[in-house]
Amino acid sequence: MSLSGVKRTSRFALQMSAFDPKRTCWCDSLPRFILEVPVPYAWEFDVTDYIFFMHDDASDGENYWEPYLAKLKNGGSFEGGSAIGNGVCVRKSGAVPSLTAHLTGYIRVNANNLDHAKTMLAGNPHFESGGTVEIRELPRTD
Q: Residue 109 and residue 123: Cα distance in Å, rounded?
């Protein structure tokens, strides 16, 4: 396993109280010891969030969402999603643009890169039935 782009993020701290054999109990009045032990499996992976926008150009037959969503959830990539209903465009001043009416739903996923996100379209009912899926990166702002 390659660890490029991975950074170590946490340590495990263990606090122990001394055991008093005369009282046969753990005693808070005796000295305490703090041990810091590195946790080798505590890694943080830098992944990017992407959003899949489904356009309204798919043919019938996209009723099999549960297996696809289960696959994303089991892989730890699924971050949410929904159908997109009616709405309005608003603007404080000036001409208001028309509503983007060709979007019917979205799915938010996390992936290593854009190519990895593309591979997650396999099994997507909208994509598999010939529909367009627009993939956009959601840049971090923190």
A: 14
Taking the complete model, does pTM exceed 0.70, yes or no? no
d(CA 91, CA 101): 17
Q: How many CB atoms lie within 10 A of CB 27?
A: 13
DSSP 49-86: EEEEEEES-PPS----HHHHHHHHHHTT-EEEEEE---
User: Which domains, ranges and CATH numbers included, belong to the chain?
Assistant: 6-43 (no CATH), 47-89+97-138 (3.30.70.1060)
The CA-CA-CA angle for residues 45, 119, 126, to 5°, reads: 125
What's the CA gap between 131 and 142, in Å, rounded? Answer: 34
Indicate the average pLDDT of the chain.
Answer: 78
